[in-house]
Amino acid sequence: MIDREPITVVCSQMGWIRAMTGHIDLSREMKFRDGDGPRFAFHAETTDRLLVFGSNGRFYTLSAANLPGGRGMGEPLRLMVDLPNEAEIVDLFVHVPGRKLLVASSAGNGFVVPEDEVLAQTRAGKQVLNLGDAARARICRPMAGDHVAVVSENGKFLVFPADELPEMSRGKGVRLQKYNMARGKQGSLELDGGLSDLTTFDLADGLKWEMGGGKTRHEPDLRDWLGKRAGVGKRPPYGFPRNNRFG
Q1: Cα(247)–Cα(197) distance, rounded to whole angstroms?
Q2: Of 31, 70, 131, 205, which residue is the least packed, with the fewest Cβ within 10 Å?
Q3: What is the rounded distance in angstroms from the CA atom of residue 94 to the CA atom of residue 64?
Q4: Above 70 in pLDDT, residue 189?
C-alpha cells in the first residue's frame, strides 16, 4: 500500500529526475547540476504512474512513489529504465487512464493510441511507434479536439480532421503531412523539412499560440489551411512563431 501524498516531479535537461514533497510553485527557481537546467516540472501524487516517451518510439513506466527525494539533484532517469544513450526523452507526464494520445515521428507519420495500451511492465519499456532508419519519435500529445494542426520544419502549416487518424496500439501510423525530397550533402535523397510540431483543437474555437513576451495570438478562422491529411500545407498564419512550434 502506498500513501497518497502530493509531490512535484522535476526532470532536468540531462534527464536527472526527483520528487519534491508537496505541490510547490512551478515558477520558482530550482537547483540543478552545473551545466544542467529545467526540462519538465509538474504536480503529481505518490500513487501516480508516470509515462516516459523516448525518441526510439518506446514508452517507459515509472512509479511516482519510487522516485528519489527532492533534497538532492535526483538520479539519472536512465538508471530506472532501459532508455538507450542514443535516445532522447521526448515527453514525461502523469498517466491518465482512459485518455488517448497522438504520437508522431520526425518523418511525419503518426496515429492515435489509447494511453492504457502504452503502459510497460518492465524496464525495457514498450515499443509503440515504429520508426524508419533515419526517423525519430518527436511528438506525443493528448487528443483534445476535433482537428489536428501540423507544421513542418520548413514552415508549412496544415489543418485536417482528427477522425482521419487511425487508432492503433502499435505501428508506423499514417502520413500526417507530405514533405518533398531533396539531395543531401552526400548526394542521397533526404526529406526537405520534416515534422516540427503538432497540436489538437476544436475548429469552432480557433487556435491559440504563444508569440513571446507574454502575448498570445488567436486565429479564429482556419479554413484557409484546412485540407486532407497528408497534404503539404501553406505558409503559417500571421504571427506564428518562427521556430515553427506551437509553444
Answers
A1: 9
A2: 31
A3: 9
A4: no
Cα angle 29, 26, 93 (rounded to 5 degrees) comes to 125
Task: Pinpoint the alpha helices (H) of 93-180.
Answer: none
Residue 242 to residue 97: CA distance in whole angstroms: 35
Domains of the chain in start order, with CATH, are 1-95 (no CATH), 98-247 (2.120.10.90)
Contact 54, 88 (CB under 8 A): yes
Helices (H) and strands (E) in the chain, counts: 0, 19
Q: Are 52 and 59 in contact (CB under 8 A)?
A: yes
pLDDT at 181: 63
> Count of CB atoms within 10 A of residue 115's CB?
19
DSSP three-state, residue 36: coil
| Strand-pair partners of 94 | 50
**Cβ proximity of 8 and 26 under 8 Å:** yes
Q: Closest by alpha carbon to 81, among 100, 69, 66? A: 66
> Which is more confident, 193 or 57?
57
Amino acid at 96: V
Grid coordinates given for 9: 516531479
